[in-house]
Amino acid sequence: xxxxFIIFVGLFTGVLSAVILLLSFTNNDQEQNQYVxxxxxxxxxxxxxxxxxxxxxxxNKKDFIExxxxxxxxxxxxxxAGDVLMLPLKKEHPAAYQLATVK
Length: 103
Description:
The chain is α+β, with helices and mostly antiparallel strands. Helix content is 52%, strand content 14%.
């Protein structure tokens, strides 16, 4: 009786963990599709992008750089022309893929 109970608890925990893991990946993908993506141009830096965005969106530059670095899994703050970055700017139409250049 105890052996069956332990097996049941183990299976239940495994199934529950798998469901939670699946839901976390699904929500993350949907969340990322709501943000503007840009292609980095020659001469762009995270600081210059923060300068461009902070004027219109009232975003703290340091917070902007930290968000972009973390959400794009950047190891350093160095970015290269051609890199595609997700920015903390919500798309006007989240269902549409948007590749834009921030100017």
